[in-house]
Amino acid sequence: MGGETSTSLSAAEGRAGERGSPRSEPLRGLRGAPRPPAVLQVLPSLNAGGVERGTIELARALVAAGWISYVASAGGPLEGDLKRAGAIHLKLPLASKNPLRMGANAHALIALIRRHGIDIVHARSRAPAWSAWWAARATGRRFVTTFHNAYDLSVPLKGHYNAIMARGARVIAISHFLAEHASSTYGVGRERLRTIPRGVDLDQFAPSRVGAERIVALAREWRLPDGALIAMLPGRLSRWKGALDFIAAIAALGRDDVYGLLIGPEQSRGFRAELERAIERHRLGTRFRIVEGCGDMPAAYMLADVVVSASTDPEGFGRVIVEAQAMGRPVVATDHGGARETVLPGVTGWLVPPADPPSLAAAIGRALALRPEERAKFAGAGRSHVAKNFPSEATCTKTIAVYEELLFGEESLEAQAAAS
Asked: What is the CATH T-level fold of the domain 2-199+392-419, as seen in this structure?
């Protein structure tokens, strides 16, 4: 358990000391010595996804600010990125929804919290949030949650399961849409609710940093011919992401020069086969690609002529659409959820009704018809929009401010005084 960390505790504490303590008074260890605050982020795994990348970006920012950063998960392809960020990985089977396993995870987290002197426990997903909440309560640590999606309350048992995300001493919503959902559906009061939009690393997602050789390499790997127009939908292969509508929209365009590209892992078993049948049914077999993994998304965006989000249910935020705008790509998204806060219609992209392939096809067609000077204008507007409203630095700074509020704010000081 503790022996499966990616980086030693002493090394992390040494780096924190080199960078200086946080702006507030240092905390005290068991022997009274000052020490940096320690944060444990908890999520199911470290697979490629928006939640996982946001976790790593925050872990890196915490280390840079002089805090000690831990992440508990079942691991995955991004473990190396986490290690390079200077954080410590604690490996637990947190992707499991089995109640017995969740209980065992809670006991394991209690031991880890005590062993490593964790001050803040931050849960980013529902199943591990239950284990993290039990552990935080047992150890008297501050508990923080992040709403990444509009969790439904329509099924009673599911509603109880989802409601764990509303139990944080602070509840972070990644969009105004989700903040309203957390407030109206789960009764999260303004005193606990904080809206912090997701951010994009503008150094990583920068068109000027993507060389032509990277774009050419992907085009060859994915067998895309020179001169083809590429419409791309990145995201996990699940029904609600709208891949079937995207396939129907590409078919409705009726153009032999347009290639459809789906990038993402299969989330629902058998769904890829259903997508392949739809592609064949629409006679798009030679002009459609399904890629289950991509290690160079900045180059993938540069390869695309338009980036699409066709989700049939509202996205909590919609990170790929923001990343695409940062890369200067015109975007098309469905008109609900977080997309209404991230897309500027007619300026950086278009919004269309969900589950409406003809409207989606029309918007994709408009994007592909942009003249070079119009495309350049969209590109500049998109990157400026993201730089102003969604930089990852702002996301991390605001999240750390929430932690400081709990550890060093008046509420915390009063609690400490009462306990002493």
From this structure: Rossmann fold (3.40.50)
